[in-house]
Amino acid sequence: MAPGRPDPAPSTSSPGAGPSPVGGGGHGGAAGWARLSTVELLIARNPDPDSGLPYLIRLPLGEGLVFRTRDTWPRTSAVYCHPVPLVDWSDGLELVEKVPLLACTRRGAAIDVVADRGREHRSQIVYTRARGRDVVFWQSPRTRKKARPNVHLPTARAARIEQLEIIVDAHERYAYRFGSQQVRTVTRGLPCGDYAVTVDGRLVASVERKSLADLVSSLTTGRLAFALGQLAALPRAAVVVEDRYSRILAGTWVRPAVVADGLAELQVRWPAVPIVFCDNRKLAEEWTYRYLAAARLWAETESLALDRMGLDDLGTDEAPGEPDPSPAELRAWARAAGLSVSDRGRLRPEVLEAWRAARLRPPVGADRPTEA
Description:
23% of the residues lie in helices and 25% in strands. The protein is α+β, with helices and mostly antiparallel strands. The strands form two sheets. Strands 2-3-4-5-9-8-7-6 form an eight-stranded antiparallel beta barrel. It has a six-stranded mixed beta sheet with strand order 11-10-12-13-14-15. The chain is globular.
């Protein structure tokens, strides 16, 4: 984490939205706003004399999250937190401290807690597993040891996915083949982006590919702004550029300052849709594969983390439905599923409905990733 005092994290629920001090981690979905009257971290003494955790803390997230802890801040080491019901927090508790917050935002299986003070202002409450059981730790940049909760660092296969299905937009020219990875590609019309993944019949992530010339052209004509607006409606989305950022500053066909300022303005307007520069097409293809695999893993495991926190702001319910297959693909699927279909002509609507129903449930024996 960079030193210094951060600005409040902006809300990403809609383009151009103002900053939100308290919220969830949905991208394009519900924000999970806190319903407490104040944006403060409340710390009180634990009234239970037999408990080894002398403090209670209450986070302004959802209806409120309450934990028993052994300290009032993770100063020298990570602090173990024991979740307790909200009813354990009563008006008669002896308050030790009220910490004003700049932000209290859930990000995956962690909650970022940013205090409104000069020192000891950044911390994170992490839901994870240790020795086979669910545990919660409160950590600061000094104590976190660069841990990333519920994220599998990719090695040969991204996110331990045996075979990742990537949807390639039917209008994509010179599409990535992902030949060196465990990927199955299907070609369909996408509402936005060039490469996408789905989970339970919903489009959960998409990547828009750009060459440097296409990036500059779409930026100056305004097409890139419309594309980012569409991508922002998805739970996860990004733009990958097959070149280095330094090439923009060396450009001669458009003033470099115009392009640099335009990209900066778009990133401020849509902060949840990153524009990632890769050195070349090969690295851009690799980044796209890793990003889409991580996004699918997030969508499959996020609901588990939300259940453990008692929240429900995944945000995929509003995502677009999965694009329908081509007639040839649908006919091949129907025959593999044992359905009787004709060799040519239009297929019965029941066949498409059966395909959609099959996509909503995981196949028998599928090796779906689990939380760490």
